[in-house]
Write a structure and sequence with these properties.
This protein has helices spanning about 15-25, 40-50, 60-80, 95-105, 110-120, 135-140, 155-170, 185-195, and strands at about 5-10, 30-35, 85-90, 125-130, 175-180. By secondary structure, it is an alpha/beta fold. It has a single domain, classed as 3-Layer(aba) Sandwich (Rossmann fold), CATH 3.40.50. The structure holds thymidine-5'-phosphate. The site of thymidine-5'-phosphate has 14 residues, from helix 4.
Length: about 200
């Protein structure tokens, strides 16, 4: 029996990391994140998100994140799923399509193809995207922005539009959750949506 892979997605400041953690607790699932989740992945994360260090060009950014993803799939995701564990990952392939494909303008299909190579075809069973109002986002983000978060409002609008397009294109595999309200309110919405879309095996 293989476990189920659930990916949390959304623009920065949506509270998705908190919600990923709460769902993982609820399901007794492995909780992990991208970029990162492995020793190599965490090194690559610090390179790609460092606001003051060397800045990769857009294609290099896409490839560094994809390299971290390949390591994550091989070392964490596949072994856990094959052992029958459910896995909740805070960001996965759709982040690359939204940020590098739509945000940086590298193209959704091109970036998806890079991720397909990196993951050897491992897709999430369910993608949960958290959407919040702009005011809530600003409040949650604070002043501490990573290099990619610093890309500006137009970039951010393209990222959000990218997520919407993906959610619309695959309504059976994607669920959009209203992230406004208290942490508990949102957690209840997430749990209900996941239970409906992904009944216990
Ligand atoms: P986080 O703040 O949710 O941990 O995400 C880290 C940053 O990395 C965030 O600015 C989004 C960015 N990112 C991409 O641009 N592409 C990706 O594929 C992933 C996984 C993250």
């Amino acid at each position: 029996m293989t476990g189920r892979l659930i990916a949390f997605e959304g623009a920065d400041g949506t509270g998705k990391s908190t919600q990923a953690r709460l769902l993982a607790d609820r399901l007794g699932a492995v909780l992990t994140r991208e970029p990162g989740g492995t020793p190599l992945g965490e090194i690559l994360r610090s390179i790609v998100l460092d606001p003051v260090g060397v800045a990769p060009v857009d294609r290099a950014e896409a490839l560094i994140i994809a390299a971290a993803r390949a390591q994550h799939v091989a070392e964490v995701l596949r072994p856990a799923l094959e052992a029958g564990r459910d896995v909740v990952t805070d960001r996965y392939i759709a982040s690359s399509v939204a940020y590098q494909g739509y945000g940086r303008g590298l193209g959704a299909d091109e970036v998806a193809a890079v991720s397909a190579f990196a993951t050897d075809g491992l897709a999430a069973d369910l993608v949960v995207v958290i959407e919040v109002d702009e005011a809530t986002t600003a409040e949650r983000l604070g002043g501490d922005l990573d290099r990619i978060e610093q890309a500006g409002v137009d970039f951010r609008s393209r990222v959000i539009a990218g997520y919407r397009a993906m959610a619309d294109a695959e309504p059976d595999r994607w669920v959009v959750v209203d992230g406004n309200g208290t942490v508990d309110e949102v957690a209840d919405r997430v749990a209900a949506a996941v239970a409906e879309r992904l009944p216990a095996p």
